[in-house]
Amino acid sequence: MMKDIMLKNKYDYETTLKFIINPIQDLFDEKKSIILLDEYFAAQYSDKVMGIETFARLLWGIAPYSVGKKSELIEKIIKMIINGTNPSENEYWGDIKDYDQKIVEMTPIIMFCYYNIDQIRNIASEEELKNIEDWFYSINSKKVSKNNWLFFKILVNLFLKKCNMKYSIEVIEKSFEDIEKMYLGDGWYSDGISRQRDYYVSFAIHYYSLLYLKYSELQDEKSKIIKERAILFSKEFIYWFADDGSAIPFGRSLTYKFAQIAFWSAMILNKIYPISIEEIKGIINRNLRWWFKQDIFDKQGNLQVGYCYKNTLFTENYNASGSSYWALKSFIFLALDSNDEFYKCEEHKMPILDNHVFQKHSFMNICRDGSQVVSFPNGQYCENEFAHTECKYEKFSYSTLSGFNVSKSNTGISNCSCDSTISVSHDGKHFFSRTNSKVIRNCKEYMHSIWEPWDSVKIETILIPKLPMHIRIHKIESEKEFYFYLQENLIMNQKTKYTLRTCLGAAFAALLINPLASYAGTWSNQGGPNQWKYDLGDGSYAADGWYWIDSDQDGMEECYYFDKKGQLLAGTRTPDGFQVDSDGRWTVNGMVKQRETPPEDLTTGIHETADGLINRNESG
User: Fold this and answer.
1) Exposed e or buried b for every residue in 65-95, given b needs 16+ CB within 10 A?
2) Given 195, 376, 615, 620, which residue has the most CB atoms within 10 angstroms?
3) d(CA 283, CA 244)
4) Please, which residues bridge with residue 534 across strands?
5) Among candidates 419, 369, 367, 366, which has minimal Cα distance to 394?
């Protein structure tokens, strides 16, 4: 495999692209119109559409590469397009329908036609040219999803116009009107009217906007807005990338891999440099190198379905064998002349960035410390029935140092993806994780939300974003017993299991669940050394868990563990693996862990105590 890649001039990037497409090159057949890979992995659409997808997505890279070239491969592709758009051929791609997956794949094909229109006119008959025109124009009468799909109508009509074929300016204008409804501000869009803010904002909405900017060749108000918004977006999107080239693994369609940098490639295409061109080149190059060090190719050399390795469980129902070639969008700058400044400049390291930023439109705090970038989202939610969206959008944190788990099944905790989230169960056998929580407040200092997994259970969470560790406080109100699981991210690999009854609970940095309430009860001895119980003052005793108690009324509480019968544990390890001293107080390395009595309101004083909480738990 191509582990170490040279990326400086145009030849280097073309060589990298060829390395990706060479294993498939023999599958381009002038008698066919689709490409089916040997590694068969089906999706929600037919095998024919799957073959169209593979063919089309390869063109995201081949189309800009083909500019100014003539080759046997280009001629084969032209003949495959002629076959696919001919209703009389067995290889006909089929009529376009409402919400058709083929709509998604039209843009790279018609873009290839634009780049090679002279060769197409030399090869195709007048009837065949009319077939091509009619097949693409048919998109205008079809319904599309009101999200990034709107751009397919825009770009298909734009490239039809560039090919001197019939097109609809009305459809272009109406689509832009609908897209404008998704604009949030500061360069951010939602992908549809939703709470999703993922890579579709970069490699779809902005990417397509920048293609329009480049090839419309207009200097109107719309073009000015596209450029301004792309610059605004770049100033926040850059924070998603780590110094080593990796990017935050977040959201759906992560099988598209280095499409993460497609936005930066489209900025290069348009010669828009919100940071220096050398710094943009560095982002692109480091990301490509990082990906080429991962296990992303199968034994035949094809891009695998998954993230850093083959993982079909992880992917979406619209991901088939060739879906990952969406990543070739990142080679759009190959349309530039070999003398372009991008190919001549050196790559530079990342510009100096803040260690902590709050991005309100993505509902994220993002922290970086040189070794990793961590995002802390609060409020993202995917309403579509895609796979594992609670894992891809709603965990408490996502780090560039590791991916995240998705659940194999909701039966059994070992099958449940508990990392960096809350998982609950009513019976200890069937589990589900935090999803569709209500945002109370997001700001740079903290993120506050409420999740109600059942009608009688409310889990209120405050997260204080910091590195190298963060604080999470969970306040739990419940009228029934249930199982509650916490686990930190995969790097820390720490897990604690608890059964909670009607109580208030808190977790600091996911190290320990601690009752949040301060108990003003009384100790009672049961007739022997360390045979203590704690009367809560309401006719009940502390039992089956941890309790913060200020025994000497000095304003500092110690944490005690009581068994199911209400007996204090002392001079031993608790069932969840923590040490308590001879007086029953939680200790770490011989030091008694303490905290100030928390305020009644969970949010009061949280900023002032943040550093203290981290310091008291950093060795826990």
Assistant:
1) bbeeeeeeebbbbbbbbbbbbbeeeebbbee
2) 376
3) 9
4) 523
5) 419
Residue 527 carries which DSSP code? S
Could you please report the per-residue DSSP string of 415-439?
Answer: GS--BTEEEEESSSSB-EE--SPEE
Q: How far is Cα 106 from Cα 95, in angstroms, rounded to an integer?
A: 12
Tokens of 206: 């902005």
Quickly list H helices, 506-549.
Answer: none
Instruction: Look at the block and give the residue holding tokens 């788990």.
Output: 405
C-alpha 159/C-alpha 165 separation (Å) is 9
pLDDT digit string, tens, across residues 519-575:
557 888 877 777 899 988 777 888 888 888 888 777 788 889 999 999 999 999 988
Task: Give the residue-averaged pLDDT of 402-407.
Answer: 87
Tokens at 416, concatenated: 């449940």
CA-closest candidate to residue 255, choices 201, 191, 302, 195:
302
Pair of tokens at residue 63: 């189309």
Closest CA to 80 of 25, 30, 131: 30
pTM of the prediction? 0.82
Q: What is the CB neighbour count within 10 angstroms for residue 276?
A: 12
Residues 314, 406 contacting (CB under 8 angstroms): yes
Q: How far apart are CA 44 and CA 417, in angstroms?
A: 25
> Is there a contact between 75 and 123 (Cβ–Cβ < 8 Å)?
yes
Q: Which of 12, 7, 17 is nearest to 347 (CA)?
A: 7
Contact in structure between 104 and 54 (CB atoms under 8 Å)? no
Q: Which tokens is 520 given?
A: 């003003």
Instruction: Quote the CA–CA distance of 512 and 527 in Å, as a whole number.
Output: 31
Residues 6 or more apart whose CB falls under 8 angstroms from that of 197 comprise 188, 190, 191, 361, 362, 363, 364, 380
Rg (CA), the chain: 28
H-run or E-run covering 498: strand 495-500
Question: Alpha-carbon distance 201 to 232, whole Å?
Answer: 13
